[in-house]
Amino acid sequence: MSHHLETASRETIREAQGERLRETVADAYEKVPLYRERLDEAGIVPEDIAHIDDIPDLPMTTKEDFRDEYPDGLFAVEWDDVTRIHASSGTTGTPKIVSYTQEDLDIWREVMARSLVAAGVTATDVVQNSYGYGLFTGGLGVHAGVEEIGACVIPMGGGNTVRQISMLEDLDSDVLTCTPSYSLYLAERMADRGVDPESLDLSTVIIGAEPFTDAMREEIEAALDVTAIDIYGLSEIIGPGVSIECAAAQEGLHIWEDHFYPEVVDPESGEPLPEGEEGELVLTTLTKQALPVLRYRTGDMTSLTYEECDCGRTTVRMDNVTGRTDDLLIVRGANVYPSQIEEVMVEMAEVAPHYRIDLRREDELDRLEITAERHESHDGPVADLAERIETKLYETLSVSPDSVEVVDPGGIERTEVGKVKRVYDHR
Ligand code: DLL
Question: What are the structural domains, with CATH classification, of the chain?
Answer without folding.
Answer: 1-325 (3.40.50.12780), 329-425 (3.30.300.30)
